[in-house]
Amino acid sequence: MGKTVLVVAAHTDDEALGCGGTIARHVAEGNSVYAVFLADGVTSRPDSTQEESKKRNNAAAKAHEILGIRKSYLLGFPDNKMDGVALLEIVQKLEAVLDEIKPQIIYTHHHGDLNVDHEITHKAVITACRPVPKSPIQEIYSFEVLSATEWNTPGVDPFIPNVFVDISSYIEKKIEALTAYHMEMRSAPHSRSIANSERQAILRGSTVGVSAAEGFSLVRLIR
Amino acid sequence: MGKTVLVVAAHTDDEALGCGGTIARHVAEGNSVYAVFLADGVTSRPDSTQEESKKRNNAAAKAHEILGIRKSYLLGFPDNKMDGVALLEIVQKLEAVLDEIKPQIIYTHHHGDLNVDHEITHKAVITACRPVPKSPIQEIYSFEVLSATEWNTPGVDPFIPNVFVDISSYIEKKIEALTAYHMEMRSAPHSRSIANSERQAILRGSTVGVSAAEGFSLVRLIR
Amino acid sequence: MGKTVLVVAAHTDDEALGCGGTIARHVAEGNSVYAVFLADGVTSRPDSTQEESKKRNNAAAKAHEILGIRKSYLLGFPDNKMDGVALLEIVQKLEAVLDEIKPQIIYTHHHGDLNVDHEITHKAVITACRPVPKSPIQEIYSFEVLSATEWNTPGVDPFIPNVFVDISSYIEKKIEALTAYHMEMRSAPHSRSIANSERQAILRGSTVGVSAAEGFSLVRLIR
Amino acid sequence: MGKTVLVVAAHTDDEALGCGGTIARHVAEGNSVYAVFLADGVTSRPDSTQEESKKRNNAAAKAHEILGIRKSYLLGFPDNKMDGVALLEIVQKLEAVLDEIKPQIIYTHHHGDLNVDHEITHKAVITACRPVPKSPIQEIYSFEVLSATEWNTPGVDPFIPNVFVDISSYIEKKIEALTAYHMEMRSAPHSRSIANSERQAILRGSTVGVSAAEGFSLVRLIR
Amino acid sequence: MGKTVLVVAAHTDDEALGCGGTIARHVAEGNSVYAVFLADGVTSRPDSTQEESKKRNNAAAKAHEILGIRKSYLLGFPDNKMDGVALLEIVQKLEAVLDEIKPQIIYTHHHGDLNVDHEITHKAVITACRPVPKSPIQEIYSFEVLSATEWNTPGVDPFIPNVFVDISSYIEKKIEALTAYHMEMRSAPHSRSIANSERQAILRGSTVGVSAAEGFSLVRLIR
Amino acid sequence: MGKTVLVVAAHTDDEALGCGGTIARHVAEGNSVYAVFLADGVTSRPDSTQEESKKRNNAAAKAHEILGIRKSYLLGFPDNKMDGVALLEIVQKLEAVLDEIKPQIIYTHHHGDLNVDHEITHKAVITACRPVPKSPIQEIYSFEVLSATEWNTPGVDPFIPNVFVDISSYIEKKIEALTAYHMEMRSAPHSRSIANSERQAILRGSTVGVSAAEGFSLVRLIR
Questions:
Q1: What pLDDT does residue D30 have?
Q2: Interchain contact, F203 vs D190, CB within 8 Å
Q3: Per-residue pLDDT tens digits for B110-129
């Protein structure tokens, strides 16, 4: 029987950058994948419009269809301003989603990302996913996001992958999903480009001798 | 002449879990022990009532009598929401208590606990206890609290004890105090159980060859 | 089809202390478990005799039968003096075993243990298990050993578990295996006692809400 | 052609304590040095008056003249209460200054300082100075401030200098600037004294074999 | 006037993998670059022949010509067995080279590499380059080497770059030098391939917004 | 009744640099202080003579008389070449001294020092001082040594003091002892000078508001 997977990200596009290939592989292997986004990703920009917000949501819908995500939740916390919200409030909204989905596997942001929403998302996840008896959650992984994970002060909670998911057969799906988010991507040599994401997947793969991989840092694994 | 000891905890019951045996030993050895609690420990629960708050305070009163705590201070910051208060405000209230008690020895939370109130309590303590000339404070220790200290993301500010207080003769007092807080304890295999607290004391003790101990991480020791 | 598991330990008894319950569970679940021991565990003692060495090997044979280990290899490096051997020599002997067994899963010592043989065993494992293309190895875990892992200088490569294997149904097998090694165990309150090992299993379990667990630190997981 | 240098500090006097000698050397070598202060440094004190604030600003003006700082910006965030402001707001104000100055070299606080304003200043800097294509910023350094950098919990993001700027010919300028801030200095054996600052410069210098130096921790260097 | 640069590597090819582009850039900018290799890189292989050793030296000679290295020193310590040599002996031989070259800038291995010769090379460098008065050495950088730096136990002295040298105009020279070492390179998806080295340079570059870069970890910078 | 203190250092003069003031204070307070030196400190120098060795021992004798050290042990391991000795051999010789002295308090080198003998001395101490039941050892502290502790690669096991011993009344004794070792001291701005040692004591003192202090990193404290 398939497992239930939940991706908890700050903004739409983080899920594709961080674990798009792994999502596609989970789906291909018969698991059910859900996603929840804590912030919306556009309102912090001075010139953000409702139009833009709609475009972003459409891009997300398309990307999620490509990856095979069954359903997405938008919690709507203020973009790039989640440090102004009490953690407990975020945790409680996330717990409601967890109660509904009952996932066994969680993917979320690395706590050492430069982006303040990423850091808070990680904290909310580990708080909401306390390992109490009878909790369904068995696995929690942190992913990396180009232009956020590698831009913090060097040495401050660095991302060091110890889990490598072979996405050799899913790298194309990942690229396709990122293409749906082309509005959020930048041109090389900016860090957040589609070409870089592919390059990163090949390098992470070569670290463990496969053609393409996504790297994760293990938070918790219960067997 | 006896020393003056101050335990600074987020919630009542943290003092018993973290350093109940050490408190009892300090008292037995003629030191005066005071405690200050920054948050109240119940109001964050959706169904918290005044009745519950009263019960919690009664439990604390009983536990403190068992341990021999001379006087307790309740600063009343919002439970599990201390991240919404400016640190300076917490520090100033804590400084007022420090000015009154003039402790030589401080016990407080580990900064790497999952619980946000614990983390902030630690920050408030080290800020309020700056080692300026003529400060009476000579020793600061961090303690561990079951279901908070071991539940943070692995590797993020881990608790690593380097101080071991032999509580072989005081483990019963600690258990008695925790029993007063039975309302806050959980049944095994939940981490926060009385049986686990005893188990932890025996393991910490065996690390250094005694029957039971509480482990601490040294923050500062001036001789 | 079952997986092939290899435990790489410095001395006989380390495998039972570190992952005895997990070995028993692997066996019960249809996996094949092998073990290799790099040093012999007795020759460093000033009064060690051939008789003792034989007793130790008999104890190991019995413990391995209890746990269900299919075959053990003794590489015979000098006990507690492995820092006098070139790492390459150890690695090459270990590679020969790996070539024969072709394991998918490896359990070995934590690199931060106080015992010099443990530290070197870990280094030999990660060197011999380089993740080149076509390597069969998919998972590497570090385990903890009472009276070695917790006795290093605090803060120097601390053991921080992020993998928890539920051994609630296998704790008795672990205790039985340790009993076979009673010659190597000490009486409480020494850290290396059977009672402590059980206590540790219950505490590690309670961290994640199960009755008993062994904790591991993930080195590498490839999926 | 000279380079453009920007010092980003929480409070006036931090720039002199942290990198006063380096500023003077930059000026002597033909570089243009600017400074921006995020908080004002006096309003958190219970008895602070407008008079005091004026005195502090006069001291800063004098110190900056001594050091050769071309122009200073005061962003006016609430002193010792910057944890109450959303990071994004601070970042945006800082970005406006960066856009105007276009510095190649940045000096700012260490992220591990006890003072909450220092920590937030560091975060604001690395967020505002993201290394996007065409950014003028090539070098970012963290400095240490007596009575803040060494007073955090030991082991929490310690300041470890790897850059040493020889200020043998500029130590007198630094002392002179600190003398302008005499109101903020304390008497020995308080950590924040002029004598200590000189002592620290000589010790940092001796680490690398010169008469006096300021130590920095490198955040980023692009060549 | 040009600076004098010394690359201290364990084996020929490490200098090209670690800082080949940076070497080429130094040469292009008028600096003199020397290299010293502590081990020979072939004798540890069971089937190594004198023929192979000669080929390796020829490859190195060609690569060094491509990069513009002025002169190379081979110290001849036993390949992959440098842990069998007393550190002092290595340090003294290295000091002799340093005395001859008198470099201002040093590039060497990262201390956290899996390869034991890399780790020892780093230790020898920092021991031989103690910052005593009048030492000519002003800058020391650690580089990364594919299939060594990323293969150590995750979290053990990770390589975290904080210096980025733009090699956009020198990436071709680096590739050319690696091609001279084709005997030492592997095919993708092995980590140590020419394609991966190029990919890594582009990713390191994109981290800071340039087309290609080599990443370094700063050991010491004196100005 | 007085306590028994043992200083375990690599070379004579390390005890005076690391904890000379603390030794003098222990003696003044009625404790008995012993010292053991694992290496001799001169034979690694190419031109070392028996004459020099004798001078060094005379200096040590004088310094120990000044500080009040009751008796010293010289274990005679090869200077700066202790990495060529099996750790077990060093541990066994040290254990013999521990068995004779039965100290409650130990001072030794920091494990992160650049000097290889310092690092090994620390390892030997924590191995020989395993906290088994009935061990007399209650306190172990690491000290810092100018020109060794601050010269390792930045960030590699940094020395971070959390214990501060007020030596305001003993700084003169420390200086006097260092003067006996004038042969080993260097002139400023070399790190290892008497003036620097005094400066360091005043700075360490000012960190905690006293006139002079020695800083230590706590290894273990059992109460």
A1: 98
A2: no
A3: 999 999 999 999 999 999 99
Which of the four pLDDT bands, split at 50, 70 and 90, describes residue C41?
low
Per-residue pLDDT of chain B (223 residues; tens, 9 = 90+): 799 999 999 999 999 999 999 999 999 999 999 999 999 866 666 566 788 889 999 999 999 999 999 999 999 999 999 999 999 999 999 999 999 999 999 999 999 999 999 999 999 999 999 999 999 999 999 999 999 999 999 999 999 999 999 999 999 999 999 999 999 999 999 999 999 999 999 999 999 999 999 999 999 999 9
Distances (CA, A) of D159 to A156, D11, D150: 12, 19, 8
Q: Can you say whether residue B92 is alpha, beta or left, with left for phi > 0 and alpha for psi between -120 and 50 degrees? A: alpha
- Quote the tokens at residue A101: 């989905």
Q: Which residue of B has its CA nearest to D151?
A: B130
Please, what sign has the CA dihedral across residues B45, B47, B49, B55? negative
Tell me what ipTM this predicted complex has: 0.96
Q: Is D70 exposed, middle or buried (0-12, 13-18, 19+ CB in 10 A)?
A: middle
Chain F residues touching residue D152 (CB < 8 angstroms): none
Residues E87-117, buried b or exposed e (16+ Cβ, 10 A)?
Answer: bbebbebbeebbeebebbbbbbbbbbbbbbb
Measured at the CA of C87, the angle between CA C86 and CA C91, to 5 degrees, comes to: 125
CB contact under 8 A, C131 and A209: yes
pTM of the shown model: 0.97
Closest-CA distance of chain F to residue D109, Å: 18
- For residue D111, CA distances in Å to C58, D36, F154 come to 57, 17, 17
Q: Which residues of F touch C (CB under 8 A)?
A: 86-88, 111, 122-123, 126-127, 130-133, 142, 157, 218-220
How many C-beta atoms lie closer than 10 Å to residue D73's C-beta? 18
Q: Which residues of A touch D219 (CB under 8 A)?
A: 153-154
pLDDT digits 0-9 by tens, A101-136: 999 999 999 999 999 999 999 999 999 999 999 999
On whether the CB atoms of residues F104 and F63 are closer than 8 A, the answer is no
- Are E218 and D166 inside 8 Å of each other by CB? no
Nearest neighbour of E199 by CB, restricted to A162, A188, A203: A203
Residue C42 scores a pLDDT above 70: no
Q: Which CATH architecture has domain D4-221?
A: 3-Layer(aba) Sandwich (3.40)
Report the C-alpha gap between A140 and A144 in whole angstroms. 14
- Rounded CA-CA distance C140/C129 in Å is 9
Chains touching chain E through at least 3 C-beta pairs below 8 angstroms are A, C, D, F
Three-state SS for A43? coil
A28: Cβ–Cβ under 8 A, 6 or more apart, which residues? A68, A169, A170
Reduce the DSSP state of residue B33 to 3 states and report it: strand
Min distance D169 CA to chain A CA atoms (Å): 31
Rounded to whole angstroms, how far apart are CA atoms D103 and D90?
18
Distance CA A123, CA A113 (A): 12
- Please report the beta strands in B26-87, taking only residues with DSSP state E, as ranges in sequence order: 32-39, 71-77
Q: Tokens for B190?
A: 């939940």
Ranges of each domain in chain F: 4-221
Beta bridge mates, D164: D215, E222
3-state secondary structure chain F: CCCEEEEEECCCCHHHHHHHHHHHHHHHCCCEEEEEEEECCCCCCCCCCHHHHHHHHHHHHHHHHHHCCCEEEEEEECCCCHHHCCHHHHHHHHHHHHHHHCCCEEEEECCCCCCHHHHHHHHHHHHHCCCCCCCCCCEEEEECCCCCCCCCCCCCCCCCCCEEEECCCCHHHHHHHHHHCHHHCCCCCCCCCHHHHHHHHHHHHHHCCCCCEEEEEEEEEEC
